[in-house]
Write a structure and sequence with these properties.
With about 260 residues, this protein is of the alpha/beta class. The chain has seven helices and six strands. The relative contact order is 0.12. The chain binds a DNA duplex (21 and 21 nucleotides) through helix 3 and helix 6.
Length: about 260
Amino acid sequence: MGRSPCCEKARTNKGAWTKEEDERLVAYIKAHGEGCWRSLPKEAGLLRCGKSCRLRWINYLRPGLKRGNFTEEEDEQIIQMHSSLGNKWSLIAARLPGRTDNEIKNHWNTHIKRKLLSSGIDPQTHCQLGNLPRGQLVPSAPVKVDQDRMKLPSMGLDLAEDGHSTITSTDEESSFPNLNLDLTLGLGPVNSNAKSSNSSQFKITPPLLPPPMTATIMSSRSTRGGKFCSCYQFGYRINTEACNCHAMRELLRYYGSLEQGQQIQ
DNA sequence: AAAATCCCCAACCGCGGGGAA
DNA sequence: ATTCCCCGCGGTTGGGGATTT
């Protein structure tokens, strides 16, 4: 059966937008506001599909867009956020006023990635390149983030006896004052043969925050019980030369540090 | 000066989530 | 509970300007 096309492709324009099309779109949105992208083209007299109109508006025509080169400060912010959020461009864009997810994505792929690589840092894992023994990597961890709640005071991490950990707010001046991560970190077995009973899960609950932004991050560890940092890619051994991952350090910096003597098991 | 190559970024495509029917 | 539809997201592409040969 299949999904019906979002528009009549034969009757829609593609490619670069003309000045006239831009003007029509802007005029229509100014008069009627955003929303209902599917019907917008027809009502605005545009031979474009709704998605194309939405994209044009969001990425180019919307008021308040910065455009122009990214500053060093913005680069730093993007790198930091990418180390904890991964390729969640829309979330990152939400933290950078005047920048769009598309713009940030492009900037990442064309500039920052290269910059990190030339500094010997893997842009995906934010780990140093070249010091990871073969076979140490485990598959990428799924990262689920609730986009509606973006509040993340810097926090401490408390590990309870039941294996759940609780984040407590320790610092009003957070690096991400509007980012709220309710992290559930599951430490499961690396290979499919490992029994689920070998895996433990600790839950990070920010009690002082609004209901949870859910960032479910599953990491893995070997059944032999090695320790792994819980950075974006997960699976590197902690406190070994293989783990030079500052993503975890960054994450913990935002949350505050683990209480002395406590370790993620 | 012309051709080849590189690079950037606007735009497209396909998919998943979520709400409505 | 299921299906359908719309919206938004992330990955990818390709046109065109910039740079190099």
